[in-house]
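Budget justification aside, the reviewers requested a transparent look at the raw inputs and outputs of the sequence design task funded under Objective 1. We therefore reproduce one unedited record. The lines immediately below are the structure tokens for a 105-residue chain.
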């Protein structure tokens, strides 16, 4: 029996029309970054997670780099992460100013 690593089909079926509508809006307005769509997204995320701020970014790497920079990461600081992660986790530490990255098992 094969168990898929990720299966989003059931969720997609439930929200398919909403997703297609959102994609169509982006394609029609040609606002691939910034603009009303992003502002609406950020407002919806803030409301959903009940916080004061939300920033839409281009990738998970961007999100990690911004978070680490906000913490004031400097070369020599210790950042503990898992070795069972995508390379973007370690590279984000370096990009944010953490210098080198050592993953320990």
């Amino acid at each position: 029996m094969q168990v898929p690593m990720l299966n989003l089909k059931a969720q997609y079926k439930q929200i398919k029309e909403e997703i297609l509508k959102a994609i169509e809006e982006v394609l029609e307005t040609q606002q691939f970054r910034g603009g009303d769509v992003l502002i609406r997204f950020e407002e919806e995320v803030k409301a959903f997670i009940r916080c004061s701020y939300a920033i839409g970014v281009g990738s998970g790497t961007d999100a990690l780099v911004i978070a680490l920079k906000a913490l004031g990461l400097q070369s020599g600081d210790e950042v503990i992460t898992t070795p069972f992660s995508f390379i973007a986790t370690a590279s984000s530490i370096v990009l944010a100013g953490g210098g080198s990255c050592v993953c320990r098992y």
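The two ends are 31 Å apart (CA to CA). The chain has a mean pLDDT of 89. Computational costs for records of this kind are itemized in the attached budget.
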